[in-house]
Design a protein that fits this description.
There is one protein chain. The protein has about 280 residues and is α/β, with parallel strands linked by helices. It has a domain of about 170 residues: Uracil-DNA Glycosylase, subunit E (3-Layer(aba) Sandwich). It has nine helices and seven strands; from the N terminus they run H-H-H-E-H-H-E-E-E-H-E-H-E-E-H-H. A hairpin with a 2-residue loop joins strand 6 and strand 7. The longest helix is centred in the middle third of the chain and has 15 residues.
Length: about 280
């Protein structure tokens, strides 16, 4: 008995009514079909290992800077105004200064101290010593009237102000003896009529219990030993006193327009010690 290889699909074809197939020459309908070539299986992609990273901060945008010029102009340095600091030697001398006792003063200063009343504010100017000792001194009447007007306009009670000179005649006993050819009772011809004595002046200001000193004119300021360059309407502290520098009396007499500004300056300055 012989067996024929039947294609299982043929039974289905016959059931559907298929009776004939048109085949190309040499076609074997009963040959075993070739096995399909195995397709290569693609390798599964590997999942990359996740590494947790901190969230990145957004970069700050850089501000565009203007290109510097080849020759940049130098910027001027602005300094706040401050009073000039005293030099170290001057500051040391200021701290070491002590008032002189009256018994070591020249005789003209001792005599004048006994005739001067105390006051919170002390006034001085270059010709004050001459105005005190010589009633006929040139310009004495005009200076006296000007100061009386100024004190009246300030309107302070009696006893507030006092006057103390920066220059007085030297002590006759301290002068060198007269040469043999000079008449008796005379001294050296070159002896100055009035000489400043800064230490005696400030010692007297302490004795008169003055808290502030008004200096009229740079000549009086230099005679009193005030340091630095002196300017009108200037305030400084010296030897434990507040000091106010004004124009000299002759300048104020000739420049009436300065009187109002000087008066306003003094009224404001005196509030520091007369409250």
């Amino acid at each position: 008995m012989a067996f024929a290889a039947l294609n299982p699909l043929a039974a289905l074809w016959r059931q559907r009514g298929l009776t004939s197939l048109l085949m190309p020459p040499g076609f074997d309908a009963f040959a075993q079909p070739d096995a399909p070539a195995a397709r290569p299986t693609p390798a599964a992609p590997q999942r990359p290992t996740a590494h947790r990273q901190p969230p990145s901060r957004p970069a700050r945008p850089e501000r565009s800077r203007p290109a510097a010029p080849e020759h940049a102009p130098q910027r001027a340095t602005v300094h706040a105004f401050r009073p000039p600091a005293p030099d170290a030697p001057a500051a040391t001398a200021e701290a070491a200064w002590r008032p002189l006792p009256p018994h070591v003063w020249p005789a003209p200063w001792r005599d004048l101290l006994s005739q001067t009343r105390p006051g919170h504010i002390l006034w001085t100017y270059w010709n004050l010593g001459q105005d005190i000792r010589d009633p006929d001194a040139p310009g004495r009447t005009e200076r006296r009237a000007f100061l009386q007007r100024l004190l009246r306009d300030l309107g302070h009670p009696a006893g507030t102000h006092t006057f103390w000179p920066v220059c007085l005649p030297p002590d006759p006993d301290a002068l060198p003896p007269a040469p043999a050819g000079n008449p008796p009772g005379t001294s050296v011809a070159a002896a100055p009529a009035y000489v400043p004595a800064p230490d005696v002046f400030w010692s007297g200001a302490r004795r008169l219990r003055s808290r502030g000193v008004v200096v009229l004119g740079s000549a009086a300021g230099k005679a009193a030993g005030l340091p630095g360059v002196l300017r009108p309407l200037q305030q400084l502290r010296h030897r434990g006193h507040l000091v106010w520098v004004l124009w000299d009396v002759e300048n104020l007499l000739a420049q009436e327009q300065r009187y109002a500004s000087m008066l306003a300056f003094l009224r404001q300055a005196f509030l520091q010690i007369l409250r």
